[in-house]
Specification:
The protein is built from 35 helices and no strands. By secondary structure, it is mainly α. Among the domains are: about 110 residues; about 160 residues. This is DUF4042 domain-containing protein.
């Protein structure tokens, strides 16, 4: 029904007065018509005349609508007209929650309890049947499915808005009922628990088929959406886990529903439940994996939407129960290959490829040896899946295939995997090339880079140094082999496409980070990395530092890691490596002093902190570094004294607290470095002298930070 000019001209007071008058009459149809018109007015731009963006007006309207709804629910006769009017009242409240003042629920938490408390008014038919066994009196109000469906939708809206208002942050999920003296957290938790119980009873009845009414698709879908909203509404881990355990049994049953839309919705909720439950397991009788694999085995184009959600649920199961999913690797790879070869849906093929990629990455990260020991049939199927995915017509599928390449290479399929990696690095679609470049960094981050990039599975640090060289070569020239300089194509690190260059820069910085960690953990001088020529790496990082802020962040991170790997000084002060080291330090100083983006200054401070962990680096810049100039002829001096001065200035003058903190951490690391056994005593003396020269400034910085902490402390 469209709104009339008279409706548009009404004020909020006139609307509420009219609804109040109709509430007391016996004309339920007239009340429904008025509620529908009011809902339309709220939901359209015409609501600006009602001033519902103001808290007082929204709260007044909500109070009136709740009174109308309660009066309808308490009616002495259950007529079709009352049912229709009740449904309209609920939908009107939902519209007000969505389009009214954002402060409606935040400033008055009582409204959340009042709205959520309405769920008790909508008892399930199953509960009503049990009550009828103990009483000869009929129910005062028999609610129709449309009203109950609208009520569940109301709960969903109230939960979403309460979450946005921050009311779900500290809920206390206790079994005890609240009293006048209990906290808001306990009250909110009690109301939310009531909603959870109501939604769970609907889902249980729907999944068991014990009641035809509760099996209504509309009611079931509303309950599934409310369950998803309830799980995601609170950041409280314990609450999310308990809620997931309650909802999982009926949701798993609904995943096998003959109604495809219900099954798809159930799988979508199951993904959320698996993510929320963490390592908490459901009852042994509940087997989500069986339901997922059973649905994935179903054929038929009309079930494509169900299988897409089932593949996504499988990805969530990998994080929760990798061991069980790993045991089904062969079946999963066969199902995925079947989808890649037969499905016409790009989204379905991409979902299947993504699930296989998640499984392989998880296994390569957490249990690489078992992945290497997979039987020949499984490896053959996985190889076929990778080949099919990497050649798929859809860029989405090829992007997901890129995530499979290096885990499969680590499992022993280096030959095929390496060829496909080179092919995808040069793919005509930028997102595919970017995904392939990112996969290299992921392999280093997860710890299987050596097994993946080299033709041997030896994981010694010597192999990691070779893997770093190969990974860098792939990002630079897109091949495992050295190419003549004149024929080197412009590959990932020098790409003109921003997304490719960003992913490659992240991978490059991550590679350097992980290798620096390996050097620090070796405690043996890391002789293999000492033979590594750092000049091309430092040059690549230096070039990234000259790009935009996002690329510069990766460049600065790489510089910090590379300086942390600087080897013992054997080749003379004027070598190319020594020159690049001083250029790199100057770049860090410049970024710390003049970086416009706070992230740039923060990354520069963090890079200094990491480099100060390396005694060889400190020796390089500490031995007669007071009068050294960088190789570009800049007036910037490269000395410990100048670096300490820059860090101290940052602590005093930078406006961003995080940047100040990073500079403080860098100086703290420099103090700690004086205890390094490999550090020359002369350098130790220089460090102490540099810090002593800044003592007064640092003491003033401490006073300022203490004062700031007192101001920030709660009174």
């Amino acid at each position: 029904m469209g709104s009339t000019n008279d409706d548009d001209a009404r004020t909020l007071s006139e609307w509420l007065e009219s609804l109040g008058a109709l509430q007391g009459s016996a004309d339920a149809e007239a009340l429904k018509t008025a509620l529908d018109a009011f809902q339309e007015r709220i939901s359209t731009h015409a609501s600006s005349g009602l001033h519902l963006d103001e808290y007082a007006h929204s709260d007044e309207a909500l109070s009136a609508l709740v009174r109308v709804l309660r009066a309808l629910l308490q009616g002495q006769s259950a007529s079709h007209a009352l049912t229709r009017a009740s449904t309209s009242a609920v939908r009107c409240i939902i519209a007000l929650i969505v389009h009214g003042s954002p402060a409606l629920l935040k400033q008055n938490p009582r409204r959340v309890h009042e709205l959520a408390g309405l769920s008790s008014e909508f008892e399930s038919e199953e509960s009503a049947t049990e009550a009828g066994k103990n009483s000869r009196q009929p129910r005062s109000s028999e609610q129709a499915l449309s009203v109950r469906t609208a009520a569940v939708q109301l709960c969903e809206s109230a939960l979403e808005q309460a979450s946005k208002a921050g009311l779900m942050i500290a809920i206390d999920d206790r079994p005890t009922r609240p009293t006048a003296f209990t906290s808001l957290a306990v009250r909110t938790g009690s109301v939310v628990a009531d909603i959870r119980s109501c939604v769970a009873s609907i889902l249980t009845a729907s999944s068991s088929g014990s009641n035809i009414a509760d099996g209504s698709p509309n009611l079931t879908h509303a309950a599934l959406k409310a369950a998803k909203a309830l799980v995601s509404a609170s950041p409280n881990v314990g609450f999310r886990q308990r809620t997931a355990l309650i909802f999982t049994p009926p949701v798993v049953s609904l995943c096998s529903s003959n109604d495809s839309s219900t099954a798809a919705a159930a799988f979508s909720v199951l993904s959320e439940l698996m993510n929320a439950s963490g390592q908490a397991k459901s009852s042994p009788d509940i087997q989500p994996l069986e339901s997922v694999l059973s649905q994935l085995s179903q054929s038929g184009a009309h079930l494509s939407v169900v299988r897409i959600q089932a593949w996504k649920a499988l990805q969530a199961l990998i994080d929760q129960d990798l061991q069980s999913v790993s045991a089904e690797t062969q079946q999963i790879s066969e199902l995925s290959l079947q989808i890649l070869q037969s499905s016409s849906s790009d989204l379905e093929r991409q979902a299947a490829m993504s699930a296989v990629a998640s499984l392989l990455q998880a296994r390569a990260t957490q249990d690489l040896s078992s992945l290497m020991d997979e039987n020949e049939a499984t490896q053959l199927t996985l190889n076929g899946t990778l080949v099919a995915g990497s050649s798929d017509i859809s860029p989405l599928v090829r992007c997901s295939a890129a995530d499979c390449i290096l885990p499969l290479a680590a499992a022993g399929l280096q030959g095929t995997a390496h060829d496909i990696l080179v092919k995808l690095l040069r793919d005509s679609e930028a997102p595919v090339s970017a995904a392939a470049a990112r996969a290299i960094g992921v392999a280093f981050d997860a710890g299987y880079a050596s097994a993946a990039l080299l033709m041997s599975a030896d994981e010694r640090s010597s192999r990691l140094a070779e893997a770093l060289t190969l990974g860098f070569r792939l990002l630079q020239i897109g091949t495992f082999e050295n190419a003549p300089a004149s024929k080197q194509p412009r590959e990932a690190l020098s790409s003109q496409t921003s997304i490719i260059k960003m992913r490659a820069a992240w991978s490059f910085a991550t590679m350097c980070d992980k290798c620096a960690d390996a050097v620090a953990a070796a405690h043996d001088g890391s002789t293999t990395f000492e033979r590594l020529d750092l000049v091309p790496f430092l040059q690549a990082a230096e070039q990234l530092c000259g790009e935009d802020d996002r690329l510069a962040a990766s460049g600065l991170r790489a510089l910090g890691a590379l300086l942390r790997m600087v080897p013992r000084h054997n080749s003379g002060r004027n070598s190319a490596e020594a020159g690049m080291i001083f250029v790199s330090v100057t770049t860090l100083q410049r970024a710390l002093r003049h970086g416009k983006d706070p992230k740039t200054r923060w990354n520069a401070g963090a890079a200094f902190e990491r480099s100060f962990e390396n005694a060889h680096f400190l020796h390089r810049i500490g031995s007669d570094g007071n009068d050294s100039k960088n190789s570009r002829g800049s007036d910037d001096t490269v000395s410990l004294r100048a670096i300490v001065n820059d860090l101290t200035t940052t602590i005093m003058l930078d406006k961003m607290f995080k940047v100040k903190l990073t500079a403080l951490q860098a100086l703290t690391q420099l103090c700690t470095a004086t205890a390094l056994p490999d550090l020359d005593r002369g350098v130790v003396t220089l460090i102490r002298a540099s810090l002593t020269a800044q003592r007064d400034t640092l003491q003033q910085a401490k006073v300022d930070l203490d004062a700031r902490a007192e101001e920030a402390a709660p009174s």
